[in-house]
Design a protein that fits this description.
- It is a single chain.
- The chain folds into 4 domains: 103 residues, no CATH class; 160 residues, no CATH class; 194 residues, 2-Layer Sandwich (Nucleotidyltransferase, domain 5); 87 residues, no CATH class.
- The chain is built from 19 helices and 17 strands.
- It is globular and about 105 Å long.
- The two termini are 58 Å apart.
- About 4% of the residues have low confidence.
- This is CxC6 like cysteine cluster associated with KDZ domain-containing protein.
- It comes from Jaapia argillacea MUCL 33604.
Length: 576
């Protein structure tokens, strides 16, 4: 907008030009631009030209807000609507934000059959911090549907419009800028920042300095962002992104709380990830002359059912057994005892079992007594020096069981092709089944080389069970483990797993052409999430780790492409 355009627009209303000051005109333009999204709700589908007249309630809103007369307000819109429609929302000062809070929160009727509802929300953004905003929804008396900014509700289901909106509604009275969701995601991806610490950074660095914070604040709303709100925004943003990539429309139940609503969609995504795998599971590039992967495990996990190898989820993290095995809470906690526990105790009447329980209780009391002494003398507690007491033998399980480890398949260029949770142990049979499932139980999809620190035992297992699935795969032990962990006296290992047996694993100068430590390096990265995921329930745990792996792969693929390594996907023989 320039002065000539403004003078030309006001030229047809000389009375208006004499009655209003430049400050009045500037305020009208900025306030009206702030209402453009609201005005668009009243336009016919497919049209985006400014209407000739404002809806009555918006006309009255601007009239009362600016202290204009009716005729002046109408003439301002007629003269300036083209200029107002040219640009996006204008900046408002703190006192002007207060004026918006005082007015404009009443529901109104958009037409004879459409009801418009407007209510205050918090908008979390990068540029403006945490701001007060208003969310509008439309309901139709005819079709009984209600339309919100991100979705519409029909038959008690939320149907998202498709794509990733610029502003994501992550709870009833909370909206977050998409770019801010990505900031939190990248905090987690590159620096292992928890959701709570991400919220703290935002609250201290951005929200506290918001220029759009009104002095009058609706009750029940707060500027401070919580860790749980960051999680909700993270999960919903990831779901919308994933569904968009798959060409699907995200549908969530409208009933229930936010977490149970998201859980439904997260369970679906987790199932799709199990069924189809990571997008990069068939990755190949010019880093390696052959398709080569490394498989290894890392000891992070989540609470799980105490029954060995039970994969059913806990109802919540305070439980020791899944829903199906709840009756085992009445059993004695000693591992080889089948008796019932005595009332008020965790063990049965056996005196030796009761001694274990009393020893555990006393040990816990003594620990807290010693820690209190440290506090009285202002001595810092070194967590490593006050670790678990190994004097109690592994005869009873008083606490919760945790999953054993996460098993990864990592390409030698660093791409993580697959992940799976091992519940009981990193058994050879479990590793074998995991590799088969990753590559669709199809031997032709297997890579050319598969490094594993225990490939000698894997080969023995395959020979014993007459399993020919890996017949065309080089099953070598990586160089580090072969030299330091495998005995020279192990003739089978020396004969079948020594990496020097295969000439394709070295170049003409005798140097190894594959990075057989890729899994160890990926484990270092994945291990950074230990503190973040250790108390998560399975649906969150699996979704979060899969999302982090997917994002990490995307960054690595981009780096490989820029460096001329030509990343691509090997077609699966099943699809051919």
């Amino acid at each position: 907008m320039n002065f000539c355009d403004l003078a030309e627009a006001l030229g047809g209303y000389p009375g208006l030009s004499r009655a209003l000051t430049w400050k009045d005109v500037d305020k009208y333009i900025r306030f009206a631009r702030r209402l453009k999204s609201e005005i668009r709700l009243h336009l016919s589908p497919g049209l985006d030209d400014p209407p000739y007249r404002l809806p009555q309630y918006l006309h009255e809103f601007l009239r009362d807000l600016l202290g204009f007369e009716d005729l002046q307000t109408m003439q301002c819109w007629s003269a300036l609507r083209g200029i107002i429609w040219q640009d996006g929302p204008a900046h408002l000062y703190a006192e002007e934000v207060d004026a918006f809070v005082k007015r404009g929160s009443q529901p109104s009727r958009a037409s004879e059959k459409v009801w418009l509802l407007r209510f205050p929300v918090v908008f979390y953004s990068i540029q403006y911090g945490a701001c007060l905003a208003y969310s509008s929804s439309l309901s139709c008396d005819g079709c009984k549907m209600r339309y919100y900014p991100n979705y519409y509700i029909m038959t008690n289901l939320r149907f998202y419009y498709g794509g990733i909106p610029d502003t994501i509604q992550f709870e009833e009275h909370g909206y977050m800028e998409k770019d801010l969701c990505e900031v939190f995601t990248n905090f987690m991806l590159v620096a292992w920042v928890s959701a709570q610490n991400g919220a703290n950074i935002y609250n201290f660095a951005l929200a506290a300095n918001s220029l759009c914070r009104p002095t009058i604040w609706p009750s029940g709303l707060t500027f401070n962002l919580s860790g749980e709100q960051v999680w909700r925004a993270f999960f919903l943003n990831a779901l919308l992104r994933d569904w968009t990539e798959r060409g699907l429309v995200l549908v969530l139940p409208d009933s229930g709380d936010h977490d149970s609503r998201l859980k439904h969609a997260m369970d679906i995504r987790n199932h799709l990830m199990i069924e189809h795998g990571q997008p990069e599971k068939m990755h190949a590039c010019q880093v390696c002359p052959l398709r080569a992967v490394v498989t290894d495990g890392i000891a992070i996990g989540h609470p799980c059912c105490m029954v060995h190898n039970c994969t059913r989820p806990l109802i919540n993290n305070r439980h020791r057994f899944c829903e199906q095995h709840q009756d085992k809470n009445l059993d004695c906690v000693v591992t080889d005892c089948d008796a019932k526990a005595e009332p008020g105790h965790r063990t049965c009447s056996n005196s030796s079992h009761r001694e274990l329980e009393e020893f555990r209780n006393q040990r816990g009391k003594a620990f807290f007594q010693l820690r209190d002494r440290l506090k009285r003398f202002n001595i810092s507690q070194i967590s490593d020096s006050l670790g678990g007491d190994d004097s109690l033998p592994e005869l009873a399980r008083f606490g919760r069981r945790r999953t054993h480890n996460e098993q990864l398949v990592v390409c030698c260029c660093g791409i993580i092709a697959a992940r799976s949770t091992m519940f009981g142990a990193e058994a050879i049979s479990g590793v074998k089944d995991f590799l088969k499932s990753v590559y669709n139980h199809n031997p032709d999809d297997m890579p050319d080389v598969c490094w594993h620190d225990n490939n000698c035992r894997l080969q023995q297992h395959l020979r014993k069970t007459n399993d020919s699935f890996f017949r065309r795969v080089i099953l070598a032990v990586d160089v580090f483990h072969f030299k330091s962990k495998h005995k020279e006296s192990d003739k089978f290992c020396q004969k079948h797993c020594n990496p020097a047996l295969w000439k394709v694993l070295v170049d003409k100068e005798g140097k190894w052409v594959f990075n057989s430590s890729a899994a160890e390096q990926a484990n270092v990265w994945l291990g950074g999430y230990l503190a973040i995921v250790r108390e998560m329930l399975p649906h969150r745990y699996n979704f979060f780790l899969d999302e982090m792996i997917k994002r990490r792969n995307e960054r690595l693929v981009g780096h490989l492409r820029k460096s001329g390594k030509t990343p691509y996907h090997v077609p699966s023989s099943i699809d051919m």
